Every structure is written in structure tokens, then in C-alpha cells.
Amino acid sequence: MIHVGTSGWQYAHWRGLFYPDGLPQSRWLEHYAESFATVEVNNAFYRLPERTTFAGWRERTPPEFVVAVKMSRYLTHILRLRDPAEPVARFLDRSAGLGAKLGPVLIQLPPTLRADPEALDAVLARFPSRVRVAVEPRHESWWTPAVRDVLTARGAALCWADRGSRPITPTWRTADFGYVRLHEGRARPRPRYGARALRSWAERIADTYGHGDDVFAYFNNDGGGAAIVDAVVFARQAARLGLDVTRTPSMPTGPAAGRARSARSRSAPDRESSDGSAQAAA
Question: Of 80-84, 95-99, 146-150, 161-165, which range is least confident?
Fold first, then answer.
């Protein structure tokens, strides 16, 4: 099953494109969860929500909804993977508010952090086996057999990521699930993906994972609502390959919709905050 969603849901520039103009922002999560079966909470990286916030998301979404959560940067960018016991325990305590709706935990590493398999292993050892963990390194020194062995031994997925529609990570399979983050396409209007690029990503997944595997795919190109449209097209491409996909919304994807999205994407994309408001992207 490919679980298709976006990185966050509270973006002001999605009003009128995805959210009806008259829908209050306090109901956007419910609307999103009717259209998608999963979301990635990207802003937990900047500010870890309280347990009550996680519990609120659990209560407001359907039973089968899955929430992936990005690990706090305190562990990855400040401690740089050292002394993981307290930050991992705090993260797990708060995210437990999601209950059974907690999906994979994403550990995104700084682009300046060079490979340290021992430190990574110590971090992954702090997570109980019931919690799925994906790791997104961003320095090329991590692409070694030693790192792959650590991920495989701990059952952690290497996060597949892209730049300009193309993979910038190895397409290793290191766990019984997969995790894909699609950051920015090269099609117009930017930052859209072309149908061929999305089909290529679906083919990579089909070539690596079987029908009994879960793969989580999140679109992070929120500008102008591109993530919503690309998620829909990607799901269709995956379905044409015979893959099972979770629900996505029905929405226009033709030239008129593209022009509307282009007009709304001239400003910088927003970053979702932990309390649901939008912040300017760093």
C-alpha cells in the first residue's frame, strides 16, 4: 500500500485551491483527512507540539488516518545525534498522544553532518521496535555499506529524496516499509512535477517493494498547491502500475488550474507551525 499525502496541511495559499473559501481554518484538518489518509507533520522539527496537540489530531481524524512526524531538530541539528536518550524519550512521550495513528518518525540530518554510523545506531536503538523510523541523510558521505548495515539491522528505512525530480539518495531498501519525500519538481508552473517524473517514482517503488509492503510518500512542494495536484497525479500513476494507493482528492489538473496555482505561488511558500498557523519558510 502506498500512503500518499503532503508535508503539512495548514497553508494559507491553499485556500480557494484545496480548501473552500468559506471553510474556517479550524476545520482544515478534517477536510484534509477526508481527502487524504495520511499527512507528514513537518513542523515538529522546529517546535515539538505538546502531547495534547497530538491527541487533538488523533481525535479529529478518521480511524485509519496515519500521521508521520518529523523528529525535533534539537537531536539532529543541535546535539548532532549525541546524547539521544532524553530528546528521543521526550519525543516519544509527546507523540504518543496520536496512539495507533502514529506513523513513521522521520529523522532528517543536517546537510553538514558527515556520516557517523555509530552515532546513528545509538539513536535508532532508543526507539522501540513498534515505532517505524525513517532517516534522511543529506551529506553524500552517508552512502556507504556501513550506514546501510546500521539501517538494515535496526529496521529503519532510508528516506528516498529528490532534487529537481531526480533522486539524490540511493534507492536502498533497508526496512519492511519505504519512505519517500518529494521536495521540488521541474515542471511548470514551478514547483510542479511532470507526469513522466511521477511515473518514474512510482516505478522505482514498484521495482523495490511488494504488495504486502507499506510505502509512505509525501509531497513537500506546497507552493501554489502543487503538492496537492502532484499527489493526485502520482497516485493515478501508481494505480496504473497495479499498486494499491490510499485515497486522494478529485480536483482539476488542467491548464486553467495550473494558471491559478501559478498566480498564487509567486510569494514564498509557507511552513506549517505546530499550532496550525503558517509561517514564512526559512
Answer: 161-165
Alpha carbon distance 27, 9 (integer Å): 11
Contact between residue 245 and residue 238 where contact means Cβ atoms under 8 Å apart: yes
Please state, rounded to an integer, the average pLDDT across all residues of the chain: 90
Q: What is the pLDDT of residue 269?
A: 39
Show the DSSP H helices in 64-211 as ranges: 73, 85-95, 117-124, 145-154, 195-208
Grid coordinates in use for 15? 485556500
**pLDDT for the residue numbered 33:** 98
The answer to whether the predicted template modeling score (pTM) of the entire model surpasses 0.85 is yes
Q: What mean pLDDT is predicted for residues 142-164?
A: 97
Q: What's the CATH number where 112 sits?
A: 3.20.20.410
Residue 233 in contact with residue 253, Cβ under 8 Å? yes
Q: What are phi and psi of 214, to 5 degrees?
A: -95, 135
Q: Is the pLDDT of residue 50 over 60?
A: yes
* Contact (Cβ atoms closer than 8 angstroms) between residue 215 and residue 254: no
How far CA 181 is from CA of 51, 167, 185, 255, in Å, comes to: 25, 10, 12, 26
Residue 171, phi then psi, degrees to nearest 5:
-100, 55
What span, in angstroms and rounded, lies between the C-alpha atoms of 47 and 66?
Answer: 20
Single-letter residue type at 221: N
The parent domain of residue 103 ranges over 2-280
Number of domains in the chain: 1
Cα atoms in the 13 Å half-sphere on the side-chain side of 213: 18
